Amino acid sequence: MASTSTTISLSSSSTLIDGKAPRPPPVSPPYSVTLPPVAPQNRQQNRETWKATAYCRKIARNVIAMATGESQIKAAAGTQVEVETEVSEIVNTVQAEGDTELPEIVKTIQAAWDKVDDKYAVTSLGVAGFLGLWVSSGMISSIDRLPLVPGVLELVGIGYTGWFAYRNLIFQPEREALIQKIKDTYNDILGSS
């Protein structure tokens, strides 16, 4: 018996793996979106950013030094810097703004808050009212997303508005009765004046 040997050489580009032909490389679809490359910052922008950062750090160090009672601050490079005038100008500006009077509405709210005996209950009612508004807003937005419901509710609103206008606003006796009813309700809530 004669033995014969055969050698098989495989090249990666033309071989069949599991009896399948090699796949071509994927082609990007025509609708693909790519982001543009980020442009590097120029040296001028980097320098300005560095200067602003260094200036803010210097002011922060000076404010801390003034708070601790030091009069002059040594900079990182070893030179002495006097920034007391800048910091004192900032402090004077803040103090001058604090001397301005509060608006009238703020004074009225403060006076009303000082008259309240049970501040805990009023605060709890305020928080509960805010949470109620938040929940009702969520419910309305979820109802608004349902199909057909917003249109039906809009038609109901238009119909009720037309009915109310016909019943209370078109004829003068009904209009006067509505105005009197509104005034009576107003006086019941706020007290007669």
Total domain modules? 3
How would a textbook summarize the main sheet? 2 strands, antiparallel
Helical segment tally? Answer: 6
Strand elements, count = 2
Describe the structure.
- The chain has 193 residues and is mainly α.
- The chain folds into 3 domains: 44-98, no CATH class; 106-145; 151-193.
- It is 62% helix and 2% strand.
- The chain contains 6 helices and 2 strands, in the order αββααααα.
- It has helices at 43-68, 84-98, 104-115, 119-145, 149-168, 172-190; strands at 73-74, 80-81.
- Strands 1-2 form a two-stranded antiparallel sheet.
- A hairpin with a 5-residue loop joins strand 1 (73-74) and strand 2 (80-81).
- The N and C termini lie far apart (129 Å).
- Mean pLDDT is 75; it is low at 72-83.
List its traits.
two-stranded antiparallel ribbon; 193 residues; 3 domains; 62% helix; flat; mainly alpha
Fold topology:
Layout: H1 43-68, E1 73-74, E2 80-81, H2 84-98, H3 104-115, H4 119-145, H5 149-168, H6 172-190
Antiparallel strand pairs: 1-2
Briefly characterize the structure:
The protein is mainly α. The protein has six helices and two strands.
